[in-house]
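User: Modeling request: complex.
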Amino acid sequence: MNSTVTAKDLVGELAGCVPQGQVLSDTDSVRKYSHDDAEWAPFTTPLAVVLAQTTAEVAAVVSYASSHGLRVVPRGAGTGLSGGANSVTNCIVVSLELMTRILEINTDESLAVAEAGVINDDLREAVAAKGLWYPPDPASYKISTLGGNAATNAGGICCVKYGVTGDYVLGLTVVLPDGEIVHLGRRTAKGVTGYDLTSLLVGSEGTLGIITEVTVKLLPMSGREDRAVIGFFPSLQSAGQAVATVAASGIVPAALELIDSMCLRAVDEWLGLELPQDVHALLLAKVDEPGTTGAELANRVATIFSDSGGTNIEQATDPKEIDRLFLARRMAYPALERLGPVLTEDVCVPRSAVPEMLSRIQSSAAKNQVVIANIAHAGDGNLHPLIIAPVGDVAAVARAKTAFDEIVDACRELGGTVTGEHGVGLLKLPGAAAELEQGVINLHRSIKKALDPRGTLNPGKAFPHQP
Amino acid sequence: MNSTVTAKDLVGELAGCVPQGQVLSDTDSVRKYSHDDAEWAPFTTPLAVVLAQTTAEVAAVVSYASSHGLRVVPRGAGTGLSGGANSVTNCIVVSLELMTRILEINTDESLAVAEAGVINDDLREAVAAKGLWYPPDPASYKISTLGGNAATNAGGICCVKYGVTGDYVLGLTVVLPDGEIVHLGRRTAKGVTGYDLTSLLVGSEGTLGIITEVTVKLLPMSGREDRAVIGFFPSLQSAGQAVATVAASGIVPAALELIDSMCLRAVDEWLGLELPQDVHALLLAKVDEPGTTGAELANRVATIFSDSGGTNIEQATDPKEIDRLFLARRMAYPALERLGPVLTEDVCVPRSAVPEMLSRIQSSAAKNQVVIANIAHAGDGNLHPLIIAPVGDVAAVARAKTAFDEIVDACRELGGTVTGEHGVGLLKLPGAAAELEQGVINLHRSIKKALDPRGTLNPGKAFPHQP
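Assistant: Request completed. Predicted assembly structure:
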């Protein structure tokens, strides 16, 4: 099949599915929509890109693709880090970025209904204006979409206390692989009618259906008072000990983040942090209990930090001061990107294995002569080793890939999972194949085949498809 | 097929799957294991009952049944209220009640691993001894099993703040319909490798697999201080208003229960409550924030109760005093059972629809001349109308069934779901058929057929199987 002709014909055909101007096939557009933010994950060039504005338009395109043997790759903001939105052979990319309407904010029921293209932070601000809180806070919250968050079951910093995206999804509007529109889940606080298909779709990376609307649970905005506690540590091990002690003490912090010396130096060189001497890790904690309870908890965290060898411990309650203390966390990623393209790892190990996992990452970096910095949602055991490979240095990239694989192996050896919050996409398919039992992989295949017999939606992603 | 011969042959065959003494086929045993606690749900007599002691034994029995065209009905403690454990034609009941080992309590990772037959309260006590808390608290917590809780995604009183069973299930050991053993989920705090099959199995009522072990997340025991607030109300509407105001105020209570006048009178006649005059509803709230924060919240709840027309408002912090205030809640069900067999309804409506739903229940009771009392997890909108039909009064039972159907219809009209926490089983199949879109029912059928093509496991339960 000649792809030029096909693409041209296809644009004409798709014009029957969506209004003029919403089908893109020019070189720049198909290139722009050909992949997400995953370094190294393979991608092709889509036949066309559709900017859908309604669920019915998504359904029309999927129905067309299904009946013509084409594939559909759904896409939110393209901020994914595993290649879940990367284009595949013979695919139409359906972008939901124009579906940005917040359809309902219900203060009586503490829920909101929004289209899939709504930016996470836009929903957060809209519900905050009505005294409500949408907790899920992936690092990309200012640019990523609710649909993408749901499709990948995105995590974030507050997960350690408040859970992940899936914990807030009550219901979904979904376009199935044949183009049928269904509504899953509920609007009530509880409900067990039938299988939990909402949770099956959440995190399925668009392989079973395209999420076009989400109904999310909200919490009250009131009743919380943020307090930050930070401390610098002489070793990753001492920082890891502090994390373990916080967990064992019965304190559930609202955030507990770790930044290693590599990150700290990168930020320091860029912004001038005036770091204390001999620093190998920074821990940043938040507690959000109000009043004296919160103050006591913050003091206990500070004491644990100190007892574990932490120095330069500071506390803050003023939002601006908290922002200042969390500066290194916020700037770590851009500071590292100044050093070269960053491959973001995403492994999650039992909390008690965090120090050992950090040691193994250091060993792998040394052995393979690559630069690996670490940001970690330490309270969850969710580590993001950031592997930096200089542009054009083929040998360094090869060594970085070796380190990537070693880290995934080490995580599994320590009882961990190969992706804590970014998803399998394409990048973690080998890791998923190693992690999941054959019987469990077979369950995935059976479900995919039952719901998408033609393999229309996002084929080859999310779990190992080939034996 | 002659069932007597079949049963005898079967016992011999099953002796190859499990040790002697674990296969029951005497009349008393098969009768005892023929149904759960659902009044009115149909049941048959099982061919045999197996008291499994290991996952391997469950697998052997399922494998045998699958290859011989028999059905398997899994069963925990048989406390279900929807007929999910009721025997079906040509079935072996596999009881997990002997699988009572708590395999691990991990304080570092805040998780526990337990066999499916462990009683909810036994796990609660065991983890409490290590400073940890297992929140899910179905009313049956002293007699129901973790496996049954997971298979039905059981709710309870603390759900309004702490969520349902599924919110605590990290992983499962499952026997699939062909007898294969798989391990789903994870032991880490986060993880998104592949589909969320754990959530698919939770609440699937044994139709996709038999849960033999559960890995559950635990919370710290410390950091909470219970405070109870109760108030009597002159009408269901004023009590409903108080519930709505609590929700809108940004307070998330740890419990918010409603008991109507019918329940109150039943308890009063039995135990002598010395009720205030003109009382039509009792609200019982708990808050569990520690220290001054908790005291302030309890005072705010008391003020809301008072402003909504509540009288005789009391607060308590002493555990014994809290028990005394919650006496009517604890004794409501046994007090009603003294009046006749109780059919427990389980509908969940949007919180704001609770007063209207209570009105409709009252109307239906009056119209059909049946006695209906109400216990409600009011903070969740989850109502348990308790329909009492005198033994042997055929006409009254028929009217009670009419009322049952009317309540289910009313719940759907108000945007609710036909089962908030008890499950579909057999009893709510018509309601589920009315609630679920045809496309969603088709998804259920596709998944069931893909994972259990022979229809071995608990056929006909959990969702409408027939078009």
